Amino acid sequence: MAYLPSSIERPVFIVSAPRSGSTLLFETLAKAETLWTIGDESHLLIEGMPRLSVSPAGVDSNRLLEANADPITAQQIRVRFAERLISRDGIARWGRDTGPVRMLEKTPKNSLRIPFLRTVFPDALFVYLYRDPRENLSSIMEAWKAGGWITYPRLAGWDGPWSLLLPPGYQELRGKSLAQIAAFQWVSANEYILSDLALLPKSRWIMVGYDQLVENPATEVERICKLIGIAFDRQLQTVVAGDLPLSRYTLTPPAKHKWRKNAPAIATVLAQVLPLYRRILETALPAEVAAQKIEALKDIPLRIGRNELCPCGSAKRYKQCHGALADLR
């Protein structure tokens, strides 16, 4: 006999801007014995419902509110998640006598859906992953260029395909630079997350910095486990004992200051994102630590000398590599 969808209790949603490292965190936490997942992101699970899809019959962006979670829709969402859950060992849950389970989910579009998710799952918990905007903007830009993250091949009010999450007001970006589009996505995701989580008790959410996760995975993962109420079990401890493995959606291997290949473009939008980044840090960290991190942004020049080695790791001078590409744009 299959358990009812109500047997999903206290689900955990990782929310973040796109390209913030959420897949890395998801794949790490999914090693916990007590967490079940649908194996990947929930794009089709949610947007496969016509009333929740970006279409004339559905919604005009990825922003979903309480009103979108009417009782019928909410029940269907719970069923759609429940029937796809698998354990860390790949064992399907639906139809098995497993009792109530904890679900882990991550999809960057969920950064715009917190009011909807907390209505569908009233006991949901949230892990907010944030990242240095210079790194994050560069990664968003690279994803757009790569063409592998197209979410909407055709979109009303937009010329050409759209990649990654779709915030309200995207139409105003027509004719803007790629850096401006990336900044719009980063700001939208983080602003909605901060404002929506502020309406929940602090016991329901936790903030994690990408740099802290990479530098001290054991400390950060154990901290998350305590908040969401699961054991920091032996297998999970083994996973975080050393450097975390690359996630499945890694575009290029990590490298120090890799973002600098897009530094000239990022310099044009940094003023748009720094006030919000300061707010993120001041919410997540003690005031003194937050101030130090903001000050540290000044230590690395945004401009790259044309005769310097290109930060992409090609061993070519910048003017012969990404500098030459920048000149063409």
State Rg.
20 Å
Main sheet summary? 5 strands, parallel
Mean of residue pLDDT values: 87
Could you please say which CATH topology applies here? Rossmann fold
Shape: globular
Question: What is the CATH C-level name?
Answer: Alpha Beta
CATH superfamily: P-loop containing nucleotide triphosphate hydrolases
Number of strands: 7
What is the helix/strand order?
EHEHHEHEHEEHEHHHHHHH
Number of domains: 1
- Termini separation comes to 60 Å
Question: Which residues sit in consecutive blocks of at least 5 with pLDDT less than 50?
Answer: 325-329
Major β-sheet strand ordering: 2-3-1-4-7
Question: Number of helical segments?
Answer: 13
- Strand % is 5-15%
Sequence-ordered SSE layout with sheet pairings:
Elements: E1 12-15, H1 22-29, E2 35-36, H2 43-47, H3 71-82, E3 102-106, H4 114-120, E4 125-130, H5 133-146, E5 150-152, E6 162-163, H6 178-197, E7 205-209, H7 210-215, H8 217-228, H9 234-239, H10 263-267, H11 270-284, H12 287-296, H13 322-328
Parallel strand pairs: 1-3, 1-4, 2-3, 4-7
Antiparallel strand pairs: 5-6
Helix pairs in contact: 5-6, 6-11, 11-12
Structure description:
The protein is an alpha/beta fold and 329 residues long. The protein has one domain (5-328): P-loop containing nucleotide triphosphate hydrolases (Rossmann fold). 39% of the residues lie in helices and 8% in strands. It contains 13 helices and 7 strands. It has helices spanning 22-29, 43-47, 71-82, 114-120, 133-146, 178-197, 210-215, 217-228, 234-239, 263-267, 270-284, 287-296, 322-328; strands spanning 12-15, 35-36, 102-106, 125-130, 150-152, 162-163, 205-209. The strands form 2 sheets. The chain has a 5-stranded parallel sheet with strand order 2-3-1-4-7, with helices on both faces. The chain has a two-stranded antiparallel sheet with strand order 5-6. Helix 5 (133-146) crosses helix 6 (178-197), helix 6 runs parallel beside helix 11 (270-284) and helix 11 packs antiparallel against helix 12 (287-296). The longest helix has 20 residues, at 178-197. The radius of gyration is 20 Å and the shape is globular. 38% of the residues are buried.
